[in-house]
Amino acid sequence: MEYFLQQLINGLALGSIYGLVAIGYTMVYGIIGMINFAHGDIFMVGAFVALIAFLILVAIGITAIPLALFLVLIIAMLLTSLYGWAVERIAYRPLRGSFRLAPLISAIGMSIVLQNYVQLAQGARVKTLQPLITGVHTVLDLGNRFVVQISNIQILIILTTLALMSGFSWIVSSTSLGRDMRACEQDLKMAALLGVDTNRTIALTFLIGAALASVAGIMYLLYYGVIDFHIGFVAGVKAFTAAVLGGIGSLPGAMLGGLLIGLIETYWSAYFSVQYKDVAAFSILIVVLIFMPTGILGRPEVEKV
Amino acid sequence: MTNAPILSLDQLTMRFGGLLAVDSLSFNAKRGDITALIGPNGAGKTTVFNCITGFYEPTSGGIRVTHDDGDSFALEKLPDFKIARNVHVARTFQNIRLFAGMTALENLLVAQHNMLMRASGYTVFGLFGLPGYRNAEREAIDLARHWLEKTRLTERADDPAGSLPYGAQRRLEIARAMCTKPVLLCLDEPAAGLNPRESDELNTLLRSIKNETRTSILLIEHDMNVVMEISDHVVVLDHGKKISEGTPDFIRNDQKVIAAYLGVEEDAVEAVEAEVGL
Amino acid sequence: MSAEKTGKSSVLSHALKDALIAGIVAFGLFILLLGFLTDDSRGPLQLRQRPVLLASIVGMVFVGRFLISLLYYNAPALRHWLGKLWFAICAFAARYKWQLVALMFAVAASRIYYAPQSWPLALIIVATTFIGVRFGFSAALLVFAVLFPVTFYSNPYYLGIAIIILTYVMLGWGLNIVVGLAGLLDLGYVAFYAVGAYSYAIIAQAYGWSFWVCLPLAGLFAAFFGVLLGFPVLRLRGDYLAIVTLAFGEIVRIVLLNWISLTNGPNGIGSIPRATFFGIPFNPTEAGFAATFGLEFDPTHRTVFLFYVILALALITNWVTIRLRKLPVGRAWEALREDEIAVRSLGINPTNTKLTAFAIGAMFGGFAGAFFATRQGFISPDSFTFPESALILAIVVLGGMGSQIGVAVAATVMTASFELFREFEQFRLVIFGFAMVGIMVWRPRGLVSTREPTAYLKERKKISVEHVAEGRG
Q1: Quick check: C328 and B127 CB within 8 A?
Q2: SS3 content of chain C, % helix, strand, coil (to 5)
Q3: Which of A243, B164, B194, B240 is spaced 20 to 30 Å from A176 by Cα?
Q4: Are residues C240 and A303, on separate chains, in Cβ contact within 8 Å?
Q5: Separation in Å, CA of C105 to nearest CA in chain A
């Protein structure tokens, strides 16, 4: 029982990270109908930017954790969203309205570029950051040999995710940018005809998606303390799986999918085997899609005959 | 030769969530006839078509097709491709669905897939170019040529279907459906977007299909010229219900039908007609 | 006069403005990742500053963007002249093509006269040009491929690269059936390649059967996996299918990594039986190939043999695909890519049709995998990762979906450039990624953007790709 609860907490923390990355996939897919394969690598870039920003702050003597964390958050979101924007500008905008597979291939190209660029710039070795946020709280102690704990970093991850999610939902539902985004999602051409600056809206979507991914990158960095140029691929595939599982195009779906993937992975590792945790996640994706072909919260695709 | 109707709908009902698109619809289409299904926009005509051709599974009710030799098929549970393959019901689409990147000829060859598939020994014999398959393919091309001639598309046979003008695409879709050798041909607004000359040609084509191949035709159409001129029997739908059926002449003068098209109650028809000067 | 002057200066100022923006963005992009290096070679993670690197890269972006903008704003004139030049070259080549062949011949003859040992090179050049002029590009490519080992017999490095290229050509052709013809986006094709390789390795080791027995078995196994995956998932549409195939690819890789008793896990399977010349091994023994045919032993014999094996396998893939396109099943694939609903209305079973595409594509992937296993003699899960799938998919899309010759050219260009610049490592990959983006922007529908009809009444007209759909499956 305690073990189960403990895994629940671990799974929620991991799932939050996946969810934040998944939002980027789902938004871009919703608006321009493409799989942004480079998004996982944007997440990785975000983690690297955050790492370097941390080290710079330490070097110039800002060591108060809350302040440093806040500054890193701002810097990483700004610089990483610039990456999101640049990727869109270079690889996707010239292909707008083109054939479906062309942007997919250029996205794969961009993913290769980002991975190897980071490897070239920062080396292939694993980067380790000593734990910055420490401390755990006991949630439940029934006097058995196992105690349920939640660490500060887990609390931080879950709270930040909640805050960002609600902030982002507010943007989508209540701002003019959100209205433009929803219009573009419904019908890009019509939105353009009605005077929505679609290029700007799409660029902003990439920007926001990248900013959220960078936050996920920071969380990953803080949670695991190790990053390398390769984390983007695995996290990207997982997050994309999460987006599809939840129903691609749906924001709550992305979050739900992220949490589910996080929980599946954690529980599978806890009760069965660590090696096959990804197999479990992917298998559940396949099974869910067989019975719900558009994901859990996706709009059922009505076949227009 | 059986006397049973080619198509018989029994209490067909189709519900989408809260929306009742087709409500206990029953009618028969006589063998060898052209039966028209008309009604205002949103009356549920295309839904009926999609139920007959298996693209939708009806909520309840029965659909039965009876072949000339008396074989009878219940369509309501069959998947779409089996209805086309085993029951030989062919259809066209309201918004044309051709294989745009394939030539007109190729479109007609795809339609003969099942015959060619058997002839090619499910690909195995065909792969090595055995004569049986080559003969079958020659016959398929002959049939395609026949329908290309009937639809006056021979000149465009080697052009991609997507490059044909609109009217030609409509005709090609009918030719493609005919290449499946159907017993029942369902046409969803074949005259939509055609100019008067083209719609006259369509009448000629449909009449010749009826007379020469004995294919029964079920037709959704808004163009009353086409409906009144060629159909033997007309069924009128409004809000998913049958409101009238009969010969074209009968329908033309039925107050209920006029009311439905004008979108008013039956007793208001005269007032409206007076207003617009009829 | 003055109007022209303002035009020029505004072009200049526009270009300068563009370059400035690009420079600022580049600075933002690179300030942390290039401006600093995280370094843990001396204890804990430390930062080193790299201002020179940062400045030079930002400078390069600035100058590059400036030049591109200048070109771009002068583009109509530039395109005009380039077009004229290209037209002139084409006209010249068309008019004097036989003279060109004769000239080649003369050059080759004189070369052989002065340096007889270079006859293979002369032979391949003359033969390729002649066939190319007479029978077209595909035939020339084929002749070049057949003569390749003769020419480069003394250069096993090139032979090795040629074998890798042909493997990718074959994989490209195999995936082309699924993606190009049937329009099903498969992001996990490498799984079938892996299944082929592992089943070959395991069967060959366990039973000691020869290559020619194990090869078809490997293909069948891969096809079986294709059906196994295809059966539940083929009713998914569009990108849902894409992610499921990707997931399947990952599942296969993870299983290979962890099923240690069967696959030996991350260490891979070594000493896989080498291909033999129909039972005669390539070794310096009495019973070896060289001794049997009275030749002096040379390890290149095996390489040449492998070259012809993969060439034959690739050509079989090509031939089968060309035949299948003209059969009902192939036409149904293409029809499915164009419009699945219409396909169903014609009485064609969409699931079976997709399954055959999946199974046949997987089978060729399996053959290629078996070949890979026997060529390498060693396989491990590292060879079957997602980037491999992405590379094969890129080959298909860059070549022009559905086009056989386009896929061959794309595979050659991509693999060759990949192999030849091996020493540049990551740098090469960055360029490679940008090249993928560039080619897509330049030709979104790939190098060959026409479709060849499979039957005709009067004349065979090429179909412009603007009419051809990509499929939503």
Answers
A1: no
A2: 75, 5, 20
A3: A243
A4: no
A5: 42
